[in-house]
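Supplementary notes for students who missed Thursday's class. We covered one full example, reproduced here. Read the sequence, then the structure, then the short commentary at the end.
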Amino acid sequence: MKRALEQRLQDVEGFREPRVELEQYPTPAELAAHVVHLAGLHDDLDRTVLDLGTGTGMFALGAALADAPRVVGLDIDAGALTVARENEARLAPATPVDWVRGDATRPPLQSTEATVLMNPPFGAQRGNEHADRRFLDAASRLSRVSYSVHNAGSKSFVESFAGDAGGEVTHAFRAEFALSRQFAFHDADSKTLDAEVYRISWE
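Structure (token representation):
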């Protein structure tokens, strides 16, 4: 099932005009399929799934293809959401996705029972420091459980933040994040970053 999901997600188009200030990097299909598969194994897809900072829809479409009952993809970038809608039309999941434009760190949504899947900015760009903290804060307010991708070496930060917000890291694993050249400051055609994925229970 995970392999089949990954193959479907390979057809998700990435950013046409990526914005460096938003750290817009497409989530690799292999990583998204693994996270969605893990969420399914823990019965975390049996409720509404929110993809905060959905970009062009990788996690949202993965959840929709995995038959989550309701899926919402939220992003501040209208251009990215246009591509996400086109991706949905191409993949044609049985569960439709509600695409919402808004700030994922101040989501125009009301929920405390959702599952959040997200690949937040790592906060590597000047002016965007601690962006992942703001995303985690939003997840803590909206969800029963969240899955998030972070830069390698984030373990102490994520565990501390979760504990202070009444949550608990229940699972963590390393992952590789393949990046293609997108911005002028990139000095290689491709690069693989070390990343970490955390499942946090906010109950």
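Commentary. The two ends are 29 Å apart (CA to CA). The domain at 2-201 is CATH 3.40.50.150 (Rossmann fold). If anything here is unclear, bring it to office hours.
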